[in-house]
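Entry 14. Ran structure prediction on the chain below.
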Amino acid sequence: MTEYDVVDTPEKYREAVDALRSGTGPVGVDAERASGFRYSQRAYLIQMYRRDSGVYLFDPPAIGDFTGLQDAIGDIPWILHAASQDLACLREVGLNPSTIFDTELGARLLGFPKVGLGTIVEELLGVHLAKEHSAADWSTRPLPQPWLTYAALDVELLVDLMEAEQELLAENEKGDIAAQEFQYELDREPKPPRAEPWRRLSGVHSIRGLRNLAVARELWLARDELASTRDTAPGRLLPDASITVAAKALPGSKRELAAMKDFTGRASRAELDRWWDAISRGRTTEDLPVLRASSESIPPPRAWADRNPEAHRRLRTAREALTKLAISLHMPTENLLAPDTLRQLAWAPPEPIGTETIANAMRGAHVRPWQVAATAATVSAAFVEAGQSAEERPEKGS
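Output, structure tokens:
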């Protein structure tokens, strides 16, 4: 079995940069984080492979500055699997590709029902990849050799996988579609931070009463501050369930809080003062949260039948039409047109409804040109059909 070394010194780093610079073809890239263990989403290992240079496993905390590596390979095409998961942490350390090929997205466009790296590699290359270390704590030092082997295999086959997908995309006349999707993925702006991130607390919808919600908010904020300071995943300090149970119970004293058997977690007792202070703030604050977060977005589709029956019919009819179209194109419906885009169009369609007005609205929503060409007429026809069926319905009942 190959023994893999970690690039964690200036000397090893310079050697790796020189080797990757002198390699041939695109670069396979992957990154490992410590999600579920650490607060940050930083990369704790970055893997790269290039033909005629080999595999290199970089330790970002040890290296720090990746300017030399970026200069060496920044203009070379990068191959990633599920690039949207890794681009942010790569950019955080100064690694930013100019062009990419995403093997997961390529597999989606080709209509594969399962697009995990192990599944696609086995399907197209006939190689079995073990995935037993995918959820490991990659902030561990030193990294065990089996983990390094796993990490290396994640990039060693990316070039071969890309070439296999490129051939299939060309055969299915989807090469240009893939190129547009990859560029969109590369150019897409990150989502803005949520105005009230504490509302993502698991179980928050079961909490009744504004005072109880205030306690939940203060506990979440106190936990988030501690987790950030310690760079520890918040749930490892105090689970969501503990915040929820305390917010519902509204304990009247620190002793009462300590006596709650369901108030558990690594820091539930070690940081008892912190949690009690948060509960006290929630119990006394005049800044009470509203019951439901204010939002300018459209309501969930389950409420449309009552609130906007016309939009409900448009959405239902267009979904059925797009599903049939996606099946004919051998790709998931959500890749043909994003569900949120369809919901926005159905809720407030352009007037008058027609292929060109729908196409213009799609372009304003950053829908890719291939998607506009493939779906605008279908969505327009579905919206018109939904309107006609609504007009005919009273006549049938008369």
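The chain has three domains: 6-187, 197-284, 301-397. Will compare against last week's run tomorrow.
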